[in-house]
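Teaching assistant's notes for section 4

Start the section by putting this record on the projector. Ask students to predict, before seeing the second block, whether Prolyl oligopeptidase family serine peptidase will look compact or extended. Collect guesses on the board.
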Amino acid sequence: MGDVSAVRRRRAVTVWLLSLALVTPAVSAGCGAILDEDPSSAGAGGGPSPAAAAVATQTSGPDAYERSGRAGDFRLVLPGPETAGPYPLVIALHSLYHDGSETTGWGLEQLARTAGFAMVSPDGVGKSWNAGTCCDTAVKTGVDDVAWLHALIQHLKTNYPIDPARVIIIGLSNGGMMAYRYACEHPEDLAGIAVVAGSLQQLDCRPDAPVSVVSVHGGKDGHVPAAGADWQPTLGTPVTSTARSLLPFREVARCPTTTGLGDVMGTGADGAPRLSDTLSAGGAAVTPVQIRAALASLGLPAPAGVPAPATPSAGVTAPALVPVDPATSPAYAIRTETTCATGARVVDYYLPDADHGWPGALGPSAFATASVIWQLLGSARAHPAR
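Reveal the predicted structure now:
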């Protein structure tokens, strides 16, 4: 028990593996857990500050997370002692047939330390998550991952200075599907979710509170296609398209239909716009023609104002709408977003050259996925249920 309290007081900038064996004695014995420390006293050799002692937590017995029988090791990253609580919590959910260690390659751990949020990477049962119609062991055995994640969130809020209005779930593939499902059933818990190469597989999704959503999907993803699939034999389920996956969240957030010029734009690898409002400036990374082609591949109409390719008259060569050198201005991503009445954000990034998986930082399909997600969701806050 003393070891646990000491670790929490230090709140070192490090990665810890926490197990039920470490946490349970402090909780079941009703001992106070020091959750925060005055940053100015860090390293000074003194005890907990009065502010830290004020947020100590008393519990009378094991909580729902500990009673679940799934309180095994998970990876937890805390911000440094200079970060005053309460701070945001990011829950990173791995893809199918992987575990929480997969998230170490996503760039979130480094960001947690610099941006000042906590990050936890739990393991799904059988390296899977029950996201509705997918996937594998978790679905076959009826694992209640929604209830377990809810208990995990409450457990972390109790034992660490987590801001309850700034909880975010980020998932890859099956983990992204799980993020969608959790947002369907407990939107009031979340400031936002980010789904990379995933789809909504909870077909009766009706969130009763707005949630900010960021989707990142590759145009060459044949495993979980952005356009959806009537049947995916490897997963044993149909796959919902990105547009259909985002629809319940657009509706509850009261986001209008994508129609304006600024609703669809090309971006660089950093997610920043690379296309002028007039669609006529040179040097754009994505031309109107490329945008139309990308949307057509998803079965979506082009937004109003994006001109169709000109048909040249006989013997006349039509000029390019925007001069683009693919070597210097590659089409990294196409971003779609409209302004939602509730203040929540629903943002879709379509990466034409990316395959299934977490987009890397280098190569033709490079995309700063972690930082783009944090830029969009870092300031988001949870909305109360209606």
